[in-house]
UniProtKB/TrEMBL annotation:
Alphabetized Gene3D superfamilies for the sequence: 3.40.630.30
Keywords from the named record: Transferase
Phylogenetic lineage: Bacteria, Bacillati, Cyanobacteriota, Cyanophyceae, Oscillatoriophycideae
PROSITE patterns per record: GNAT (PS51186)
Protein name: Acetyltransferase family protein
Cross-referenced InterPro entries: Acyl_CoA_acyltransferase, GNAT_dom
GO molecular function term, any single one: acyltransferase activity, transferring groups other than amino-acyl groups
UniProt keyword Transferase present: yes
Residues annotated as domain N-acetyltransferase: 1-153
Origin species: Lyngbya aestuarii BL J
Length: 157
């Protein structure tokens, strides 16, 4: 069941990110701050989870500053035991539909160019995202940032 996250989900979502994406301690700390800010502000951010006898997935996106209708998917993760079942696609589609209903225009996704992230990049391509940019050595020497872009169907046009 896909639903909005609650403050009680925070610890489980951080554990999910740690287990799924192998976040480093400083990245987990930043993720905790991101969730805290989400709950302690009136932000437009979207954070949803997939629940199946526990939290098995999460997606988080935020508007890009100083743009008109451009959003960035900062996090999407599915527990390894639940990958390959369409859950990631369902979470991503829910984010896209929510943004489209709001009249937003573009969703960006950033990921690593390392070979170990090929499955992630294939997922975005399968979901109709186009590679828009590559920033060499962004994350570290030899670890490029790859930016994917999808134009959202805007019902207001």
């Amino acid at each position: 069941m896909i639903r909005l996250i609650t403050p009680d989900d925070t610890a489980a979502l951080i554990a999910l990110a740690k287990d799924t994406i192998s976040f480093k301690p400083n990245e987990l700390e930043e993720l905790g701050k991101m969730f805290s800010d989400y709950f302690n502000s009136n932000s437009d951010d979207i954070c949803i989870t997939d629940e199946d006898n526990g939290l098995v997935g999460v997606a988080y996106c935020t508007p890009e500053h100083m743009t008109n209708g451009t959003w960035n998917l900062l996090l999407i993760a599915i527990h390894p035991n639940y990958q390959g079942q369409g859950r990631g696609t369902a979470l991503l589609r829910q984010v896209e539909q929510t943004l489209t209903r709001r009249g937003e225009r573009i969703l960006l996704v950033e990921t690593s160019g390392l070979p170990s992230f090929e499955r992630t990049r294939a997922f975005y391509r399968k979901c109709s995202y186009d590679e828009e940019a590559r920033i060499r050595d962004f994350y570290d020497v030899g670890d490029d940032q790859i930016v994917y872009r999808k134009v959202l169907a805007n019902p207001l046009n």
